[in-house]
Amino acid sequence: MKNLIKIAVILFALSNNVFAQKYISKTGKVSFYSEATMEKIEAHNNQMNAAINLTTSDVVFKVLIKSFEFEKALMQEHFNENYLESDKFPNATYIGKITNESDIIYTKDGTYKAITEGNLTIHGVTKKITETGTIQVKDGKIIIVAKFNILLKDYNIKIPKNVANNISETVQISVNVTLDKVN
User: Fold this and answer.
1) pLDDT of residue 20
2) What one-character-per-residue DSSP string does 23-88 give?
């Protein structure tokens, strides 16, 4: 009986040690790309915060909208003032869960398909989304990579008719973030 209790205590300690782990990053990368008839628009942001809790499979991403950098300063100004209204809506967030957590082995280096389901908030509008990406476990770090499309109208981002040929209604979002274990 004592051996059984010792084994149970050891397994409990190991499971908490392995699975009760949180990983974070303050330097994730997010970009978006839009290609319309007249113009391609691309911007990059290296100030994304991200976290994953391996116990609960929760994932959280937060992006400061004003940190997107464009090739042209005028595009950046219009993006912040006219389209995303970044003074009024300073952040975009994603709060979700990995729904296929049993397919991911966080203790073994490798690349795994990840499916997340959660709420994406942009421009003050929250939409439930389900997206697929990859989680790479490498040298004690977790690397999340995803690429997905959103419709601007879903987030009440209006495109004036006079520039409708310059801006696509669909925008591709790319995420690439390396998370470190929280000690």
Assistant:
1) 52
2) EEEEEEEEEEEEE-SS-EEEEEEEEEEEEEETTTTEEEEEEEGGG-EESSHHHHHHIIIIIS-TTT
